[in-house]
Design a protein that fits this description.
The complex is a heterodimer. Chain A is an alpha/beta fold. Chain A contains ten helices and ten strands. In chain A, a hairpin with a 2-residue loop joins strand 9 and strand 10. By secondary structure, chain B is mainly α. Chain B has two domains: 121 residues, no CATH class; 213 residues, Orthogonal Bundle (MetI-like fold).
Chain lengths: 256, 418
């Protein structure tokens, strides 16, 4: 499958929300991303899978400029990411991110975690921001924890707060970087449930995960990466039942 | 966990190891005389300790404290004009109110926090306060024992009383005080300074005695902290010039002893500046102390900054916070919290280091001690040990109180529990 075919497929699904064109990324001499071409439409849910070190995280971190790509173009909602700091801020405001290690602010209560950005980036009044935060906390089903500190919550609860924190900025895109990998098994489901509901609400999502069940059930497309390259892209049915590439088959045989 | 008050889980009684209650006699036999060697060591050290104790206690019982009785005011306020003593008294009262207000404000804040997070909070009783500040109370009692009139006792009670009143007022502060509450101690310092120096008072270059040591400590902290913070941030700056200046400053100052800086400030600054711009000697010493402390504070803050995981910065960036707000709202609050133990250690050593100004000719507590021994009434009577013990008590009380308070804050914030 070539870059052109899946670009066309996306544009049929809707206007492109995120566009990656010939993106290369180096860490010193190591090339983390090689000629990445990917277009993601509005309301699309894309799951990125692949062995560790394949560049999955680097890929989504380039979308909100936590990593700076070295060559090619990254365009988010019509804004190209360059060294222009103002434009980076605009993109980050519209892009929520959820991390493997939650990265909640431990010195702030849950509600302060969620209101911090709306108040300090969007400059929303305190009461309004708190109402918004409670709405988001209700959405991730933990409004009753609003006044606790992150350290008092379980991993699954913390990750749901992290999702609420990202949603409070009312982003157009949500990036998930292995959101369940640091969780105890019994807490994975509560986070995946929240993510699934988010997908059903029409959020554009890119999810790096090892949860194949989630990919199968929720993804519009699955992207398989290996050695910094996109090896194969397809719908979940195609991808899991009829993979084209040998590397994909090998990977799937190892995990399924 | 950091940030919230900690809930302590009480284990079931059955899970606890059985407690063995020893009678004092059993304890002594088990710990001091378990083997012949142990017995020998115990007897030798016991005898040595007893000998020392008898000597020291005997000395202090039989010592003549007239030198302290006569010079008590000199120790505390130095040469502050005796008809102006209401100024330091008033200033101390103001500071006491400010401390009380701050403590009261923090109490209601901690209470509100405990309510929200569902943990318990117990207000301190007067008994708690006395246990908490017993060294300070001991020092005040010792000082009052050397007074001859009732006035100092009344003044001390007045100062403590104003602190208590401040504490009650502090508990009435509105919830919004959280944002400007930090300015209360600074405001207290400013008013205290005005009371001492303003309206015909005494310029700080004339201050002496314990008053001078306290001033150098507090002013040193107040001026060095922002400078140190700026240097620490400068050291992490992406601008090469800023980084180079910060690193050079920090590494240069840390490579020089404080006493050298003091000598340079007192004796060399005069050559560099035109006469009308030359600051007084206390100001010069303060400049040296501030420059010195700032470099160390910068390194402490740097350590704290390094302790904040990079994920915190990434999370702040990802929600769109600017680098400045990321630093102010996310990184610094966490970094500074972790620097409290080291920072207080630095402040304690600063308090003790202020005695170095004796060497460059300022009249601090240590010099007052020496001057007292040079008075005709006390000359050559070997009373240095008495005055130095008194000075030592004051420094010990100050340092020990700071260190106890720091440990308390640490426990409160749960530092070191991660």
């Amino acid at each position: 499958m070539t870059a052109d075919t899946y670009t066309d497929a996306t544009q049929a699904a809707g206007e492109a929300m995120i566009q990656l064109e010939a993106v290369d990324k180096f860490f010193g001499d190591f090339q983390a991303l090689k000629d990445i071409n990917l277009s993601i439409g509005q309301q699309e849910v894309v799951v990125v899978i692949g062995p560790s070190g394949s560049g999955k995280s680097t890929l989504i971190r380039c979308i909100n400029r936590l990593e700076k790509h070295d060559r090619g173009r990254v365009v988010v909602d019509g804004i190209e990411l360059t060294d222009d700091v103002k434009m980076i801020q605009v993109v980050r405001r519209e892009t929520g991110m959820v991390f493997q290690q939650f990265n909640l602010f431990p010195h702030l209560t849950v509600i302060e975690n969620v209101t911090l950005a709306p108040r300090n980036v969007r400059h929303i009044a305190k009461q309004e921001a708190e109402d918004l935060a409670m709405t988001m906390l209700t959405r991730v089903k933990i409004p009753e924890q609003a006044h606790k500190f992150p350290g008092q919550l379980s991993g699954g609860q913390q990750q749901r707060v992290a999702i609420a924190r990202a949603l409070a900025m009312q982003p157009k895109v949500m990036l998930f970087d292995e959101p369940t990998s640091a969780l105890d098994p019994e807490m994975i489901k509560e986070v995946l449930d929240v993510m699934e509901e988010l997908a059903q609400s029409g959020m554009t999502m890119i999810v790096v995960t090892h949860e194949m069940g989630f990919a199968r059930a929720v993804a519009n497309r699955v992207v398989f990466m290996s050695d910094g390259q996109i090896v194969e892209v397809g719908t979940p049915e195609h991808f899991f039942t009829d993979p084209q590439e040998d590397r994909t088959k090998l990977f799937l045989s190892q995990i399924l | 966990m950091i940030g919230g008050p900690t809930a302590v889980a009480t284990p079931e009684t059955s899970e606890r190891p059985p407690e063995t209650k020893l009678t004092p006699g059993e304890w002594v036999r088990k710990n001091l005389f378990s083997t012949p060697l142990n017995s020998l060591v115990s007897i030798l050290f016991g005898a040595g300790l007893l000998y020392l104790l008898v000597g020291v206690v005997g000395f202090f019982i039989t010592a003549d404290y007239q030198i302290i009785r006569v010079n008590l005011a000199n120790f505390v306020v130095g040469r502050f004009p005796r008809d102006q003593l209401w100024r330091p008294v008033f200033a101390t009262g103001i500071l006491s109110v400010a401390v009380g207000l701050t403590a009261g404000g923090l109490t209601i804040r901690a209470e509100a926090l405990a309510r929200e997070t569902g943990s318990t909070f117990r207000r301190s009783t007067p008994g708690d306060w006395m246990r908490r500040f017993w060294p300070l109370l001991l020092m005040i009692a010792v000082m009052l024992a050397f007074t001859t009139t009732v006035t100092p006792t009344l003044v001390s009670l007045g100062v403590i009383g104003s602190g208590v009143v401040g504490n009650y007022l502090g508990r009435l502060l509105p919830a919004g005080a959280r944002r400007w509450g930090w300015s209360i101690p600074l405001l207290g310092l400013a008013v205290a300074y005005l009371a001492l120096s303003g309206f015909g008072g005494l310029d700080w270059n004339q201050w002496s005695g314990l008053h001078l040591n306290l001033f150098l400590t507090v002013a040193g902290i107040v001026f060095a902290f922002p400078l140190g913070l700026a240097l620490a941030l400068g050291r992490r700056s992406t601008l090469p010039t800023v980084r180079a200046i910060s690193v050079t400053y920090i590494e240069f100052i840390r490579g020089v002893p404080l006493i050298t800086l003091l000598f340079m400030a007192i004796f060399a600054l005069g050559f560099l500046l035109p006469e009308e711009l030359r600051p007084g000697n206390v100001t010069r010493a303060l400049i040296a102390i501030t420059m010195f402390e700032a470099a160390y504070i910068a390194e402490i803050v740097r350590g704290g900054l390094q302790g904040v995981p990079s994920g915190q910065v990434e999370a702040a960036q990802a929600v769109g916070l600017t680098p400045w707000k990321t630093m102010r709202l996310v990184v610094l609050p966490q970094a500074l919290r972790h620097t409290i133990p080291a920072m207080v250690g630095q402040f304690i050593s600063l308090f003790k280091d202020t005695t170095l100004v004796t060497i460059v000719g300022l009249t601090d507590l240590l010099r007052v001690s020496n001057q007292a021994n040079a008075q005709p009434d006390f000359l050559g009577q070997g009373l240095h040990f008495v005055t130095l013990a008194f000075v030592g008590l004051i420094f010990w009380v100050g340092s020990y109180t700071m260190s106890r308070e720091a440990r308390r804050i640490e426990r409160r914030l749960g530092v070191g529990e991660r």
